[in-house]
## 1
Amino acid sequence: MRTLILTASLLLLAGCAGFGLPRHDPAQAWIDLDSKQEDTALQALEVDDKATEDNRYFQIQPGSHELTVRYQFSVQPTNIGPDAEPLWRDCQLNVKFNDFNAGERYQLQAGNIGFRPWAKLYDQQRKVIGLGTPAGCQHT
């Protein structure tokens, strides 16, 4: 029985490994996505108004680009009113940067303060190189 469970576990892990992120193309810039708070979702939507192929990251040509992300988060009752339920927000943010470099990894982080989402783009040295501007939110 243990052998069966071990075999099934290894097959499951091997299957999940196929769904990992692709290799980073050294001729392009790579942007990892990270939401800073629990129970949130951050997704890559567009590069220069064109839909991304994979919403887990951006991989782009060097140069100037505008990235659009979708950030979903919950506004807690402490920011709404004493008898309120959490309120879910679904927002888009745009981040522009003029000098993406080939082979470099960047990180785009998002979070919120109450109803207001924010996004920051970091270079490899953890220096903030871009800030997100809200592009619209909806309540869900």
Note: Residues 1-18 have pLDDT under 50 and may be disordered.
## 2
Amino acid sequence: MRAPEPIRQHTIAVLVDNESGVLARVIGLFSGRGYNIESLTVAEVDSAKNLSRITIVTSGTEMVIEQIKNQLDRLVPVHTVIDLTIEGPSLERELALVKVRSTGDKRVEALRLADAFRARVVDTTHESFVFELTGATSKIDAFVTLMRPLGLNDVARTGVVAIKRGVEPLVDMKTASQGEKFR
């Protein structure tokens, strides 16, 4: 009997036309096939060429990840699909705003932990703080976990953004032109 294929998390960058309905089509591909999106970010990256970048964190077996990439690549507004998890070294970061409501010793402890995590205080009242924290998802998860017993009140997270390390771009933005696939 064969051991089941391991499920792994992958970060996929997708360069698409910046037009209405594109994000809905990408999300529809995932929901229609029962794939889960763990994190999703999207923003325009080149206004002159009307291009946006979607960064998706998803999990699956290697076969499922390959299916996802192939199906994304077939969508008309998609120019390129890059699996940053296997493409080579990359950086992943997330931004979180974390609100903690506390007084006394718990307030002091929240400030001490925030300093250790390099979180910035971006708002304060006599009863609460809002901390801004950037870093790997695991760092943010750890900070949120530690803030729970200290009065965690609210959390807002951006989702993962990722980029390849070094000089190599996802695609050459200088030669990228609308309507064609990039490789």
Note: The chain has a mean pLDDT of 92.
